[in-house]
C-alpha cells in the first residue's frame, strides 16, 4: 500500500495535498447553498461539507474555510439569518460546479449557470428550482475550529421539500431515486446506487435486509 | 412536492424522524472507527459522520451523539489519544453494519464480525485489514455543540494508507476504484460510480472535464 506520514503530507505540493486530503475521508454530500442579501442580491454556491447534526431538533451543519469560502454566502446568512440547501442531482453537475467560479460581487450565479431561483412558502432565501430535495434553513450558531481557523455553522431545518416517490413508509428518503450525487474530493461527481438497506443490528443475529426475502 | 415544516418534523414519530432527517442532507461518508483501550481491548464501529476539516494541517472530524454513540470508541480515544478511520468497501457492508450491535463491553466487534485487526508502523490503534483506504488519527480537540448536546471531535491525520492504483497524478483518490461506499441515512449502503471530474471553474468559461476530450 502507498503510505504517507504526517510529515510527508505536510511537505506535499499544496494542490496535490488538497486533492489527496479532500478525498481520503470518503464521499461527501453534494449541495447548493442559496442566499439572498438584504438588497435582494441572490447567490448560489456548491458545498461538499453539509452534514447531519441532529434529528430532534432537526439541524444540519457545514464548514466554512476562510480561504475557499464563496464570499457572499456567509455574509448573506449572517445578514439575513436564512439560506437554503438544495441537493445536486445527476443532471446538474456542470451547473453546480460552475457556481464555484469567482464572479463579481454584483453578479448572481443563478443568472450565470442556468440554475433557477424558486421562492416557496414566503421563505426569504431562494431555493434551486431544479433540485428535487431542498431545505429552508435558519442560522443558529457557529463554532470556531481553532486548529485551522475554520467555522462550523449550525442551522435549523425549517422546511423540507422532496418528491414524494422517494420516501419509504418509515420516513427514509431513497437518494438514488432522487438522482442525488455524492462528491469525491473537491471536483469529482459520483452517482451512487443503493446496494442494500439493513435492519437494526443485534448481537449474535444475522443482518437482515429491508429488500431481500429470506 | 411533499413539504414538512419544522413543526411537522417536531411532531413526527421518533424513528420516522430519525430516518427522514438523517437522509435529507445527502450522502454521508462510510467509515469504521477502530480503537484499543489501555488494557488492550479493541473496538470497531460504523460511523457516517466523518468529514474533512482541513488539508494543512490534515484533519478530519466526526460527530458523537450521546444517545447513539458506540460506548467504547470515545472512551478509548480519550484514554489513549488514537484511533483509525477505515473506509467501508462494497464487500464489507454487512460486517460494517453488524458493528452497530450492542455487544457487551468485554467483547470486541472484531471477533464478532469477521473484520480483522491489523497493526501498521507501530501505531497504537488497530486498522481494519480489509479496508483499502485507512488513516491513523490523533485526537486534537472537541467542540460541544450546545444546540443538541453533541460533540464534534477534531483529529489529525498522522498516517494515510491506500492502494496505489486509486491515486491520480494530481493526488486525488478515485474512490470508486477503491470500491468505497456512501451511506444513505442510517442504514442504507450505496455504491457510487464517478460521472465526471471537472477542472477549476472560471467566470464565462465552459466547465472542462478531466476525462472527456474536446
From TrEMBL, chains A, B:
Keywords: Flavoprotein, FMN. Residues 32-167 form the Flavin reductase like domain. Its cofactor is FMN. It comes from the Bacteria. Transmembrane segments: none annotated. It holds the Pfam family Flavin_Reduct. GO terms for molecular function: FMN binding; oxidoreductase activity, acting on the CH-NH group of donors, NAD or NADP as acceptor. InterPro entries: Flavin_Rdtase-like_dom (IPR002563), Split_barrel_FMN-bd (IPR012349). Belongs to the flavoredoxin family. This is FMN-binding split barrel domain-containing protein.
Amino acid at each position: 500500500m502507498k503510505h504517507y506520514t504526517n510529515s510527508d503530507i505536510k511537505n506535499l505540493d499544496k494542490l496535490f495535498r488538497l486533492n489527496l486530503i479532500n478525498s481520503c475521508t470518503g464521499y461527501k454530500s453534494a449541495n447548493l447553498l442559496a442566499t439572498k442579501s438584504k438588497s435582494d442580491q441572490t447567490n448560489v454556491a456548491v458545498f461538499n461539507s453539509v452534514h447531519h447534526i441532529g434529528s430532534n431538533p432537526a439541524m444540519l451543519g457545514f464548514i466554512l474555510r476562510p480561504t475557499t469560502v464563496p464570499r457572499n454566502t456567509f455574509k448573506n446568512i449572517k445578514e439575513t439569518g436564512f439560506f437554503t440547501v438544495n441537493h445536486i442531482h445527476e443532471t446538474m453537475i456542470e451547473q453546480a460546479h460552475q457556481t464555484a467560479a469567482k464572479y463579481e460581487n454584483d453578479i448572481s450565479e443563478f443568472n450565470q449557470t442556468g440554475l433557477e431561483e424558486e421562492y416557496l412558502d414566503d421563505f426569504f432565501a431562494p431555493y434551486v428550482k431544479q433540485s428535487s430535495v431542498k431545505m429552508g434553513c435558519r442560522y443558529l450558531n457557529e463554532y470556531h475550529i481553532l486548529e485551522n481557523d475554520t467555522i462550523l455553522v449550525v442551522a435549523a431545518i425549517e422546511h423540507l421539500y422532496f418528491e414524494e416517490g422517494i420516501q419509504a413508509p418509515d420516513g427514509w428518503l431513497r437518494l438514488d431515486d432522487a438522482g442525488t450525487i455524492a462528491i469525491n474530493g473537491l471536483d469529482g461527481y459520483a452517482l451512487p446506487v443503493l446496494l442494500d438497506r439493513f435492519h437494526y443490528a443485534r448481537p449474535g443475529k444475522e443482518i437482515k435486509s429491508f429488500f431481500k426475502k429470506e
